[in-house]
Amino acid sequence: DLYVSAIRMDELQVISQRSEAKHILCLVDACYGGMMGIGYRGLTSIDGPNYIETITKYRARQVISAGGRGEKVIEKSEWGHSAFTKNLISGLKDWMADLDNDGIITTQELGAFLKNHVIIDSDNQQNPKTRNIGSSTDEGEFVFFQHSNIARAPSISSGKNISSQPKNVNL
Fold it and tell me: What letter would DSSP give residue 158?
């Protein structure tokens, strides 16, 4: 029942703007999910000693959709789900989306990984999109840290290193 289980795309944008969370990443594995978002932000190649502090300093409201405007989600029974979810799981669980092997996966890296693999798995029927869904001031980046790198990760709220253990996320 869509009226009970679905969230309208424009409502998802409103929720993300009202949230007090500093960084939000929406992963939309739905037909026509590419209609979500405002504008495209290219893969950044900034690197250096303060890279993580720089990209996490500002609020982030980002979305990676399974495809572009008007594209349907491709599913196969051998995968057990869609091409998008298949590659999302391998990209995060097996850490394959860490394109520069630095122990950190940015939204831009995850988006590039998904784009490359989903296009192939869907026989060019899906073209995932990585976009900002907030205002122009939401220039931050959502990041995933590999468990072994969490000690050197900056705390988003204090700018200091995180000392607590991360919670396990099952994919």
Answer: T
Predicted confidence at residue 124, as pLDDT, reads 94
Are the C-beta atoms of 69 and 82 separated by less than 8 Å? no
CA angle 23–38–101, rounded 5-degree value: 50
Q: Which residue has the higher pLDDT, 13 or 163?
A: 13
Flag whether pLDDT at 24 surpasses 90. Answer: no
User: Three-class SS of residue 154?
Assistant: strand
CA dihedral 119, 130, 17, 146 (to 10 degrees): 90
**Of 97, 90, 95, 40, residue with least CA distance to 65:** 40
Q: How many helices (H) does the chain have, and how many strands (E)?
A: 5, 7
Helix (H, G, I), strand (E, B) or coil at 149: helix
Element (H or E) spanning 40, and its range? none
